[in-house]
Specification:
globular; three-stranded antiparallel β-sheet; mainly alpha; hpI Integrase, Chain A
């Protein structure tokens, strides 16, 4: 092994487009009353991947402790019967995400909607798949349907480059600016290591460094005034 060189660490260079504060306010207003409003809100509350949200089952909700177990995701393929196929998460690791009262309220509203849908449509898919965000028959909700609905909304906002996955980036950016430590954020996002999180959101940390410089100078200025 002498003389060999390790390959360079490649950073995630794909551009991300998290919402600004003003864009987020507009987005939340525009999704009001939308059929997927609660799904979009839930993505912002948890930072879960689209595949993980579509694969989330009610058995994964810890109502008492306000935690969500992420242990699988919905594959884009279906089985021979046209039914949803579950697979392991991207890193093959399960994780828990602690959520606040707004996220729990979102799930409670969704549960009421699913109960009404079950009474209307009937069938065995509801209990068999147990999906939190199913289609009208209790089966898999289409990736494309959710993605296209989101894209139509952001296009009206003038944010054509913003993907559904950028809701995850918006969550992460909000966590960083709110002071959530990097290890907790890494665990919540399900990244394999902290470096991945740092690489993706380095621009957010850089902007916070600039702000910290001004905060330190303001602190010193206040001390000088007290002399």
């Amino acid at each position: 092994m002498q003389g060999t060189k390790l390959p360079p660490v490649r950073k995630n260079t794909r551009s991300i487009h998290p919402f600004t504060e003003e864009e987020l306010k507009t987005y939340l207003t525009m999704i009001e009353g939308h059929k997927h409003e609660l799904l979009f809100q839930f993505a912002l509350y948890t930072g879960m991947r689209q595949s993980e949200i579509l694969g989330l089952t009610w058995s994964n909700i810890d109502w008492e402790n306000h935690k969500i177990l992420v242990d699988k995701q919905m594959a884009k393929k279906k089985n021979a019967k046209g039914e949803p196929v579950f697979e392991e998460t991207k890193t093959d690791k399960e994780r828990f995400i602690a959520v606040g009262p707004d996220a729990i309220a979102c799930l409670e509203k969704q549960q009421a909607i699913v109960d009404r849908m079950r009474l209307t449509a009937g069938g065995s898919c509801w209990e068999e798949h147990d999906l939190v965000f199913p289609n009208a028959t209790g089966n898999k909700l289409s990736y494309r349907t959710v993605y296209d609905c989101h894209k139509r909304i952001v296009k009206k906002m003038g944010c054509e480059d913003t993907r559904f996955h950028d809701l995850r980036h918006t969550y992460a950016t909000a966590c960083i600016k709110s002071g959530v430590d990097i290890k907790t954020l890494q665990d919540n996002l399900g990244h394999s290591d902290v470096q991945t999180t740092l690489n993706i959101y380095s621009h957010v940390f850089d902007s916070m460094k600039e702000a910290s410089a001004h905060q330190v100078e303001a602190y010193y200025s206040e001390l000088k005034k007290e002399k």
